[in-house]
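quick one if you have a minute, typing this from the bus. theres a chain ive been looking at and ive put its sequence and its fold in token form underneath. please have a look and point out which stretches look like helix strand or loop to you. anything you notice is useful, everything is just below.

***
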Amino acid sequence: MQAVILAGGKGTRLSQDAEAPPKPLVKICGVPLLDHILGWLAPQGVDDVVLLTAYRAAYVEEVMGHGERHGVRIRYSVETSPLGTAGAVKAAEHLLKDRFLVVYGDVLADVDIGLFWQAHLAGEGLATLLVHPNDHPMDSDRVVTNRHGVIERMVRKEDHAGPEAGALCNAALYVLEKRLLAEIPADGKPRDFARDVFPALVSSGKRLLAYRSAEYLKDMGTLTRLQKVEGDLRSGVPASMRRSTPRPAVLMDRDGVLIQEEPFLTRKDKLVVMPGVVEAITRLNKARVLSVCCTNQPVVARGDITEDGLHELHRYMEGKLGEGGAWLDDIFTCPHHPDRGYPQERVELKVPCNCRKPQPGLIFQAEAALGVDRRASIFVGDRTTDMLAARAAGVLPVGVMTGVACKDGKHPLAPEIPLLQDLAQAVGLMLDTAPSWDPFLEEARSARVVLIGGGSRSGKTVAANALRLRLQTLGIPVLHVSLDRYIQPASTRKVDSTLRERIRFEDTREAVARLATCEPVLMPGYNPVTRERAASAVVQWSGKGVLVVDGLLAHALDVPGALKVVMRADAEALRERRRAFYVWKGLAPSEIDAAVDGRAEEHDTVASTLGLATLHLALDGQLRIQGVA
């Protein structure tokens, strides 16, 4: 492969020193920027490099030579008068192959060139531009595409376009066909690719494509940006964002999680981003956790909207997020629906598929496209179909009380699934709760069985799932079981039954003892939404990794060597959590008061067993785990 590197910059914004090196030779972590760029390109098959120089061109050639230390051939084209990015490449036309990369010499990237190159070949366009969302799209040059990635419009920041132009920005990395240069007049006038050539080509109907990437690519046009890039390099950030490196993700449903629930949404004026969503996604962006939307959209199969219309709707949604400085790394959509009988339905989409949740296909698509590490990721949804899709894909499911709040009734809600207030709390589970297990992680790993008990709404399920996520992120397999499965169904519960009878404590004692010795156990099901029995399932721990069990009196079970944890919370926090939980369940105000206040037996029973726990923990206001004396 051949790469053309634009290396004519002075670097005056990086230093006022007249003796300072030209921008492409500015040292990043002690190494000239061009050496970083060649160190990225050469191992990926780039063996022919054309450096386009201008300022101190002889010095650049003296330092870089002919590419011997990188195992590539370097040739030079010197710009004697300003030609712009496109003009400089045009002037080097005699050195160029039929197809080549264009790399800006003030950009540090760690992009999979092979995938980028193959996307260009598959797209059969004159050029393919690498694009990505950023935290300031409204003051960036944006790229508007159709659903196939063909560029329809180039939007300059001076155009002051709104969210309808989306959030995808030109990242200044291209694959070009040499025949594109014939579209650039040979009149010696300065021309820029992004602001002159590409917009003109798109306007004239030429085929240009966008390649969306979540990989590392940063320009260093200012001293502040240079220092940020140096910090990223020292911390290993570029390598952690490589396409070949598995990355944690928060996968999320759209309606009821990202945007307000609006049945069969087809219009932009009905699309409203939910409160707190921008802030939650911004946290993920800053933490370099992938943020991915996976959504069923049967409105396409119903004939209510076309695929193109849905793409425009999602582009607008990304623009609305971008207005607040947040971005999604990608959106994956299922347009199918198996049920027929709608007047304008599209028969070709009325078929069973593996992408419509509860099938896990959308999650697998995200994994293939972005390198999602399913073990270290969560799926946030407001429907039981989201929860089943996550479990089928081996991703941690997290329910939220927004939207339909997992009360759609299509499937039972497994008691192991944490139910949080909204996307912000779900993001907190990943970024705050899971890492806060670290001071206690070695104890959990060495014990191999962790029993987490505590009163209702004390945080047992949240803590158990956070521990599971943290261990799995480290490559340690986890089996998590909730003893709420054994709760007596409301329809068969006796009024005078004791707490231990209602939770079937003796049955749970036997079941956990068998699980801990790797025996198969037929465990009952329980649906917290209906408070009735759900389907039973055979559960067996392989003995590998860690077995995590949560339940009201789990810490009181006798499992040799187990780490026994009890979750604590002050009375006011418990009242607030329990009240929110009963509101979610749909209880009347009088029932809520009775349920919240009628916990004396539970309080006394848990209090009498606190001495059996070896570790007392609590969740603070940000859902972080902390020790309790």
The first strand starts at residue 2 and ends at 7. Residues 286 and 326 are 9 Å apart (CA to CA). The chain has a mean pLDDT of 95.
